[in-house]
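Late entry, evening session. Most of the bench is empty. Finally got around to the prediction I had been postponing all week. Sequence below, unchanged from the version circulated by S.P.
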Amino acid sequence: MARAEPERPFPPGDYPLIVIGSGPGALQVSYCLGRLGVEHAVLSADEAPGGMFRRWPFFQRLLSWTKPYAPVTRDSRAYERYDWNSLLADEPEHRSLQAQFMDHTSSFPSRPEMERSLVSFAQATGIRIRHGCRWTATQREETAAGARFVLETTDGEYRTPLVVAAVGVCQPFTPAFPGSDLTAHYAKTRPAESYAGRRVLIIGKQNSGFELASGLLNWASRIVLASPSSTRLSVNTRSLVGVRARYVQPYEDHVLGGGVSVLDAAIQSVTRDDGGSLTVHLRPTNGGEELAIAADEVIAATGFTCPLGDLPSLGVATFGQSLLPTQTPFWESTTVPGLYFAGTIGQGSPGLKKHGLPSNSGAVHGARYNARVLARRIAAVHFSKAPMDRVVDPSALVDFALGEIDGCPELWHQKAYLARVVTVEPDGLHDRGIAPLAHVLDEGGPDAIVLTLEADGSGSIYPVVYLRRRGAISEHALDADPLLDYTSDRYRRPLASILEAIVPGAVVR
């Protein structure tokens, strides 16, 4: 195998595995692969770590919070509940780095603070990346050892049987309509002061649209947000689905008549008159006459697609407006074996969507756990690294289960998506670690106890225990606790009763 020079690692050559990207997903999966002893190369077109956080969000702090002071210490696993932005590390000194870069004016980090945290994590944990190396094309070739990928890059060719694409969902998308070329995508937004006194119409009413509106409130003379669907606020849906409460000021100004209008209307066209002014033609969703709104600027906050390059020509199936690749529960392409995905692109593995709620795979606090599970899966399946297996004392099973339900950050951040699995085998109970819930419920295998948390969209968060017994699955939900404390005696006996069905003699202490 080709060896790298220290200052710029991973020259073109053959590698057992290649990770593409240097955002949070790539950093997390590379860190975990390294700690598992899996040799791999990391290639990135960027000049430094950070991914999308090197550029976005433009005007606002992140939507995800990091609580500098919490009821638990920063170096503990439990602190991850309060820190949605740091990457995961085995070493206490490398955990929860985000808080140390924050200025304490907000529990939501700024974009520069998030970028500094990611750069620091990469440096402190020794993640090696070949920056300035852009992936440009892909081929598949058959060899005596099996199929492998040939990655063409600006530095030369790389060959590998396994690829983890952590390229994000960051390719600007603007739907085609007459005059769409007169709009500027969110990704092309200028500094806020350049919109001073301008009439701005924003196409789109999800978080990016409201972020722009919030950032331009003190500059633009008038702001209109328009899209066919009604605005859904996360405080109303009681989930992360919808516009987060941090961006509601434009909505409040709309209600109060403060120079912001939020319209449920489809964009028909954009035209420009001889004087250079724009007119946006809209069709109200609930019917009525077409609207014609004058604007100086039209910004399309219409989302992003996955920058998959030529992977679809190799057979990678995609779906939806974002062109997410279809994935197995372990984030492998369903149509091209050996191609895995990490980071926000992991949304393509939807899970069960209990109560219609999606996973948090599109955010750091969900994707970081996916990446760790993915690294362990790759290590076990492709590199013969022993999977996690710890013996659980049957007399301590109830305490173990209560502790995981109450304090396991994977379960809290990826509700009804990731689960803690304990198998019941002839030689005892084995803690198999965290696994995708959809996989565990479908795979079969030995009897098992599967612990997860669920949210039903009403504000309730409650534990659910699945039992796999002789191939059959049973589901057992426990009551929600208003203070989210699942260590009390109120849960001990009901949980013991459930576990007795599969582990006779589970002891309540």
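Two things to note before I forget:
The first helix runs from residue 24 to 35.
The first strand starts at residue 13 and ends at 14.
Will write this up properly tomorrow.
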